Amino acid sequence: MLIKSLLLLFPLIACAVVAAQSKHSKKPDAKAIHNSAIVIDTHADTPGRFVDENFDLATDTPTSEGHFDFGKVQQGNLGAEFFSIWVDPKITTGYTRRALDMIDSVYEQARLNPDRMVMAYSAEDIVKARSGPHKRLAALMGVEGGHAIENDIRVLRDFYRLGVRYMTLTWMNTNEWADGSGDVNDDKIQHHNGLTDFGKQIVAEMNRLGMMVDISHVSDKTFEDVIAITKAPVIASHSSARALTDHYRNMTDDMLREMTKNGGVVQVNFNCGFIARDPDYTKKVKAFQDAHPELMKQQDELQKQLEADHSPETHAKLDAVNEQLKAGNPRPPLSDLIDHIDHIAKVAGVDHVGLGSDFDGIQCTPQGIDSVADLPKITEALVERGYDEQQIQKILGGNLLRVFREVERVSREMNLAK
C-alpha cells in the first residue's frame, strides 16, 4: 500500500519540479527592468537645435521632429543625458564663443522647464534627479572636440566650472595637440603621432578637475597615449566595435581590452554607418545617394550655407532635405546595434559597455529606434539575448555612474595631494 501511494506521488513531484524549473527559467520582465534603471545616454547633439532653431524640449507633440523632446524622454525612461557641445571646426566666428552659446542653451532649457529637467554636475546629482516621485531629466554636458578650448587650458577649467563633465579630445579633425581619426591619413594635415606634450597636460588637468576624458573620435595612437598617462578611467562617449563594422570611428578588440584594464566604459553609437553588419551596406547607401543627385546637391549647399549663417530658416530647409534622404536610406536591423553591445560586453566585459546614441546628430538609426522613446526596445532585446537584470542595469547606466564616481575620486585625491 505504501509503495502504491509513493508511485501515485511521483507524477505530482515531477510536475512540481518542472513547475519550479519553469519558474526559475522565466525571462526577466524587460519593462520592469527598464523602468527601474537609471538610463544614461552620453551623447545627444540637441544643443545645436536649441541655438539654431530655437527648439524647446517641451515641444513634445506626437509629430514633433527630431530624436529628443520631453515626451520622448518620458516614454523612453531616460534618466540622464549628456548634451553634446559640438563646434563645427569649419566655422570662423570663434570656437569658444560658439561653445558658450550652446552651454547657455542647455541651461536655458533647464530654466524654462524646471519641473522636467535639472542641471547635474556629479554622479550623485544624477541619482538625486531620479529619486522621489517627481523624476526629472538630469542634464549634463560634454564638449565634443578639443578645438573648442582654442589651445587655452584656462578655457578648459572654465568649461568645467560651467558644468562640462567630459571632453572628446578631438572631433574628426586633428587639432593642435591631438590627432583625430577622421584625417589621420591626410598628408596635408600636420599630425603629432598621438598627443603632444600640451595634449598630455590637458589629459592630466582633466583628471585633476574630475572631467571625464572621452576618446571617441581620436586616432588609435592618441588613444594609446591617453591610456598610458591617464590616472582615471576614460570613456568612449559614442563609439562601437570595429570587429563587427570596420569603420575608423569604432574601437578594435585590442582597444576594448585596454578599456577593461583602464576601468573605462564604451558607450555604443547608434549611427547606421557605425553598426551596420551588412558588408554591402556602404554600397547600398551610395547607390541610393547616386540615384538622388539633386537631393545630395541641395544637402551639400544647405550645409555650407548653415556653416555661414546658422539661421533657423536654413536649418528648416536642411531638415526637410534630410528627412527625404532618411526616408529612403537603408537602415540596418536593431539586432546589429545589439550585436555591438553584446560584442563589447564579451570582449571588454559587461562592466564596460553602455549607450551613447548620437541622437539629433545622425540621420540614420537602426530599424525600430526612431527616437529616445524607443530605448526600451534595447532592454527587450538584451533580455532576449539572455542578459539578467543586474547586467542590463549596468549597461543602461550603471557602468557610466561607476566610471563617473571613480573620476571624481581620482580628482579628490589629486587635489588633496597638492
Structure description:
There is one protein chain. The chain is of the alpha/beta class. The chain folds into two domains: 29-277 and 332-417, Metal-dependent hydrolases (TIM Barrel); 280-331, no CATH class. The chain contains 17 helices and nine strands. It has helices spanning 2-25, 30-36, 47-53, 70-76, 95-112, 123-129, 153-161, 197-209, 220-229, 253-262, 272-275, 281-290, 293-309, 312-328, 334-347, 375-384, 389-417, and strands spanning 39-44, 78-86, 117-119, 137-144, 164-168, 212-214, 235-236, 265-268, 353-355. Strand 3, helix 6 and strand 4 (137-144) form a beta-alpha-beta unit. Residues 2-8 and 17-23 have low confidence and may be disordered.
Write the layout of secondary structure elements.
Layout: H1 2-25, H2 30-36, E1 39-44, H3 47-53, H4 70-76, E2 78-86, H5 95-112, E3 117-119, H6 123-129, E4 137-144, H7 153-161, E5 164-168, H8 197-209, E6 212-214, H9 220-229, E7 235-236, H10 253-262, E8 265-268, H11 272-275, H12 281-290, H13 293-309, H14 312-328, H15 334-347, E9 353-355, H16 375-384, H17 389-417
Parallel strand pairs: 1-2, 2-4, 3-4, 4-5, 5-6, 7-8, 8-9
